[in-house]
Amino acid sequence: MDQPKNLREVIELAYEKTQTSSSRPLAKYAQSRDYALTHNTILNLLNGTYASRPKRQTLEALSFLSGLPLNDVRRAAGLPPLPSVSVFHQLPEDVDELEVQPR
């Protein structure tokens, strides 16, 4: 399969990779590996009825299940790739000591 164009194709790839054929076994497989993914989420993504932008944990689970890099799954979800360098390293050392407002 070429680069998946949408999350439906990512899920279909996950079915192939995990040798499952429906949302419940796929969700159970993900949950047994400590990923928070429900069969309802899978069904809504497949049907195009997922009402909001998928959470990072959902995309990470789909990345694991499909064997695709997270940025490929993000692209299939219509989201930009994550930066290759974390912004965390650019923050001052004492940033955790700031009050909520100055952060």
Question: How is this structure best summarized?
Answer:
With 103 residues, the protein is an all-alpha fold.
Reconstruct the topology from this structure:
Blueprint lengths: L6 H12 L4 H10 L6 H9 L8 H11 L3 H7 L27
DSSP summary: helix tally = 5
Order of helices and strands: HHHHH
Which overall shape is indicated by the principal axes computed on the Cα atoms?
elongated
- How many β strands by DSSP? 0
Can you summarize the main beta sheet? none
Instruction: Tell me what portion of residues adopts beta-strand conformation.
Output: under 5%
Give the terminus-to-terminus CA distance: 44 Å
Helix content: 40-55%
Low-confidence runs of at least 5 consecutive residues: none
Integer-rounded radius of gyration: 16 Å
Mean pLDDT: 89
What structural class do the secondary elements suggest? mainly alpha
What is the subunit organization of this protein?
A: single chain
Walkthrough of the structure:
The chain is mainly α and 103 residues long. 48% of the residues lie in helices and 0% in strands. The protein contains 5 helices and no strands. The protein has helices spanning 7-18, 23-32, 39-47, 56-66, 70-76. The longest helix has 12 residues, at 7-18. The mean pLDDT is 89.
Core attributes:
5 helices; single chain; 0% strand; 103 residues; mainly alpha
